[in-house]
Amino acid sequence: TPRVFSGIQPSGGLTLGNYLGAITKFTDWQNRGTHQTVFCMVDLHAITVPQAPETLRHNTRELCAGFLASGIDPERSILINQSQVPEHAQLAWIFNCVARMGWMGRMTQWKDKSGKNAEAASLGLFAYPALMAADILIYHATHVPVGEDQKQHIELTRDIAAKFNHDYGVDFFPMTEPVIEGAATRIMSLKDGTKKMSKSDPVEASRINLTDDADAIAKKIKKAKTDPDPLPGTVEGLEGRPDARNLVNIYAALSESSVADVLAANDGKMFGYFKQDLADLAVTKLAPVSSEMARLMQDPAEIDRILARGAERAREITVPILERTYDIVGMVR
Ligand code: TYM
Hints:
Elements (H helix, E strand, L loop, with lengths): L2 E6 L7 H17 L3 E6 L1 H4 L6 H17 L8 E4 L5 H10 L4 H5 L2 H7 L8 H15 L5 E3 L5 H18 L8 E3 L34 H9 L19 H13 L4 H7 L5 H26 L3 H30 L4
Parallel strand pairs: 1-2, 2-3, 4-5
The protein binds ligand 1.
Ligand 1 binds next to strand 1, helix 1 and helix 7.
C-alpha cells in the first residue's frame, strides 16, 4: 500500500498554523482512504533545542490529544511518538553517513535557528533533516503533507534517498513528494503578515493556540493587524497587503472554500466586520477541538496506551525496512 507520513514537534502548544497547514490535511488523507497514513509526534526533533523533561512529556501527550480531537483515528491511521519506534533513530544514523555537511549547511531552517552562533548550536539541530528523512523513509512513504516551511527538508529527503540508492546500487528508497496545497500552506503572525505564525514567537497575541478558549480566540482575531482599506473583490487586490491576505487565507481555510470565493462574497466589506465574522467562524471550528483536547488530557494513561499500540503497529513496518537497509549496507545480522 502507498503510504503517507507526517510529523509535528511537541515543542510547545499547537498553533492555528499547525492545525490548518498540517493536521486538517492529515485527516483529509486519512478519510480519503487511498493511502495508509502514519502520523508522528517527533519528540527526538524537539530536543534539538533544550526542553524541560516534564514539559516535553506534557506537550507530547497534549499533541496526541490534539491529533485525536482533530479527527485522527488511531485505528485507521498509525499514530506514534517518534522515540517509541527506535528504527527512526537507527535509520537516521545511516543517513547521517549518507548526507553531506554542505547539504545540511544550506538548510534555511538551520541558518535561522542556529543564528549568528552556530558553534553553540547542538549537533542534533544540524543533523535534524537527516532524522526527518529517516522518519519518512523508514515507512517508504511517498507523500508528505506539510506547510511551505518544510519544503526544503522534503527535497533533501529525496537527495538522501537518491544518494543512498546510487551509492549502494539499489532501488530501495522511494522518491518523496511534498504535498503543499490550499490556502493555509503558510499562516502568518496576526501581528506581522510577513512573519510565519509560530509557537516560538514571544508575542502571545501573534498566534492562536489550539488550547485557547473562545474568548481568547475572538480577542486575538479582533486585535489582529490589518490595513485601513476594505476587502478587495479579487485575489489581485491582496497584492502588497500581507496582513489582509493572511486573514482572508485563514477564513478560506477554516470555511474550506477558496480565497477567490471568500473575496467575491465579501467585496468592499470593512475589516472590522470581516474580523467579527472570522472570529465567529474560528470559535465555531476550534472551540470543539480545544474542549475535546482538554477532555482527553484528563486521562493521560489512555493516551499512553494509544501511543504504545501505535508503536507496535508501526514496528511491523519499520523493523523489516531497517533490516533490509542494514543488509544493503553490509552489517552482519
Ligand atoms: P513543525 O512542528 O514546525 O510544524 C508541524 C507542521 O505544521 C506546519 N506549520 C505551518 N503551516 C502553515 N502555516 C504555519 N504558520 C505553520 N507552522 C507550522 C509545518 O509546515 C509542518 O507541516 N520538521 C517538522 C516535523 C517533522 C516532519 C517529519 C514533518 C519531523 N519529521 C517528517 C514531515 C515529515 C517540523 O518541525 O514541523
